[in-house]
Amino acid sequence: MAAGGGTKAVLAALFANLAIAIAKFVGFAVTRSASMLAEGVHSCADTGNQALLLMGGRLAKRDPTPRHPFGYGRERYFWSFVVSIILFTLGALFAINEGIEKVRHPHELESLWVAIGILIFGIVVESLSFRTAIVESNKVRGKLSWGTFIRRSRTPELPVVLLEDLGAMFGLVFALIAVVLAEVTGEPRWDGVGTLVIGVLLGIIAIVLAIEMKSLLIGESATEEDRARLRAALDESPEIDRVVDMRTQHLGPEELLVAAEVDFADHLSGDQMPAAIAAVEARLRAAVPTATNVYLEPSR
């Protein structure tokens, strides 16, 4: 995974979720809290998700083959999409099912202060992981709003970690509120309600991630900024009289396909064309280093 892929953010999330998962299951064993159990399963799913993201980054580094001539960059998109499915099935659906069960058949919570202590510990650790994800994202976000960054990012790991950490943070807060309400009101159904809220939250995040990862997996163009740089490089090339058409598609976060139909200058002879094409390709790669695959087609 390239530096821009947020490896540091993924690793921070993995170790944080592993530590929190262990604490939550200990808490569930002591308190029998449904919210704690749902949060424990959520943290386990998140830990596995980070491992999948790291595996996707490793698989994406494989060299191109005759069967996959453009390489394996989309491995990162595929495994990020798988993560969104796991988050929905193991996170959201489990929590909703557990919440419904606890609302229908509530039972008193045990060892309230143990539950509160574990949840506060989880909030602190998750906050540190979330901070790391924010710092890593800010390195590539520029002036984009967070919503726009998540929609436009061609690096899948950062939006996944950001939304997972955000969901985990809110989930822990909801679980804490539910546990406290159940104790204060004497109504254990609040624990089940908290679990339901966590499930709905995870479901929303999973759907947003699935939509964004599906779009990347199908194939998105270069960003507006990169398209503008590429077009400017073509327009400024003395070897080209006119740009008829230009299309781009990300084969991976750091692999961009650029195809352009152009009118080459009339003064170029057949012998001069290879050097002219090489010069234009070099200019495009200088403008956008991720333009790893460039194809120029003469319009006449």
Q: What does this 3D model show about the protein?
A:
This protein is mainly α and 300 residues long. Helix content is 68%, strand content 10%. The chain contains nine helices and three strands, in the order ααααααααββαβ. It has helices at residues 7-31, 34-59, 75-104, 112-141, 146-152, 157-185, 189-218, 224-235, 273-287, and strands spanning 240-252, 255-264, 293-298. The chain has a three-stranded mixed sheet with strand order 1-2-3. Helix 9 links the parallel strand 2 (255-264) and strand 3 (293-298). Helix 2 (34-59) packs antiparallel against helix 3, helix 2 (34-59) packs parallel to helix 7 (189-218) and helix 6 runs antiparallel to helix 7. The longest helix is centred in the N-terminal third of the chain and has 30 residues, at 75-104.
Any chance you could write out the topology, listing elements then pairs?
Elements: H1 7-31, H2 34-59, H3 75-104, H4 112-141, H5 146-152, H6 157-185, H7 189-218, H8 224-235, E1 240-252, E2 255-264, H9 273-287, E3 293-298
Helix pairs in contact: 1-2, 1-4, 1-6, 2-3, 2-6, 2-7, 3-7, 4-6, 6-7, 8-9
